[in-house]
């Protein structure tokens, strides 16, 4: 069952740090995003290609993933694999559209898999706010109460 808990609850569970994984090949975006998130007191890790192994090892609290990598919609394929993996499916995903117009099918597919889809041109303060809003999404362990 999916439930929502406060960011403070997530921070308490993680010893004060919330881990964000940014998966994007746009180095400028990644570095600007890293700076903005670190200023907002998030721990940030990055990858330039989607890899479920990184997610399994890191177990981030949330991920920001690009739709396209080298012109291919690898982000959507990764999202499908991520959501079908019992070890990673509880990690919320924010999917960043590519610079090229996405199709309605791509957006529908991403939303059906539970991802929040954001525009390629999102301003960093708006992205940080979306992360804050999404961060409390977690899987509830049997018998555990949420805030």
Which helices and strands occur, and which strands form pairs?
Layout: E1 2-4, H1 7-13, E2 19-23, H2 27-39, E3 43-47, H3 52-58, E4 62-66, H4 74-84, E5 93-96, H5 104-112, E6 116-118, H6 124-134, E7 137-139
Parallel strand pairs: 2-3, 2-4, 4-5, 5-6
Antiparallel strand pairs: 1-7
Helix pairs in contact: 2-6
What would your notes on this structure say?
It is a single chain. By secondary structure, the chain is an alpha/beta fold. Helices cover 39% and strands 19% of the residues. It contains six helices and seven strands, in the order βαβαβαβαβαβαβ.
Q: Numbering strands along the chain, what is their spatial order in the largest sheet?
A: 3-2-4-5-6
Tally of separate domains: 1
Structural class assignment? alpha/beta
CATH class term:
Alpha Beta
User: Which radius of gyration do the C-alpha atoms yield?
Assistant: 15 Å
How much is the average pLDDT?
Answer: 82
Taken as a percent bin, the fraction of beta residues is 15-25%
The amount of helix comes to: 25-40%
Order of helices and strands: EHEHEHEHEHEHE
Low-confidence stretches are: 139-147
Total strand count, please?
7
Number of helical regions = 6
What is the H level of CATH, i.e. the homologous superfamily?
Response regulator
Give me the CATH architecture, please.
Answer: 3-Layer(aba) Sandwich
> Which term fits the overall shape?
globular
CATH domain fold name: Rossmann fold
N- to C-terminal distance: 15 Å
* Biggest sheet overview: 5 strands, parallel
In oligomeric terms, what are we looking at? single chain
């Amino acid at each position: 069952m999916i439930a929502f808990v406060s960011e403070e609850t997530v921070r308490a569970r993680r010893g004060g740090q919330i881990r964000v994984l940014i998966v994007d090949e746009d180095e400028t975006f990644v570095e600007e995003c890293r700076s903005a998130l670190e200023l907002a007191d998030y721990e940030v890790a990055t990858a330039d290609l989607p890899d479920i192994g990184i997610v399994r090892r890191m177990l981030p609290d949330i991920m920001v993933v690009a739709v396209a990598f080298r012109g291919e919609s690898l982000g959507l394929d990764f999202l499908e694999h991520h959501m079908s993996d019992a070890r990673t499916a509880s990690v919320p995903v924010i999917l960043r559209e590519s610079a090229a117009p996405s199709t309605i099918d791509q957006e529908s597919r991403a939303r059906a898999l539970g991802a929040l889809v954001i525009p390629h041109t999102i301003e960093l303060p708006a992205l940080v706010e979306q992360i804050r809003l999404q961060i409390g999404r977690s899987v509830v362990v049997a018998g555990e109460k949420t805030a």
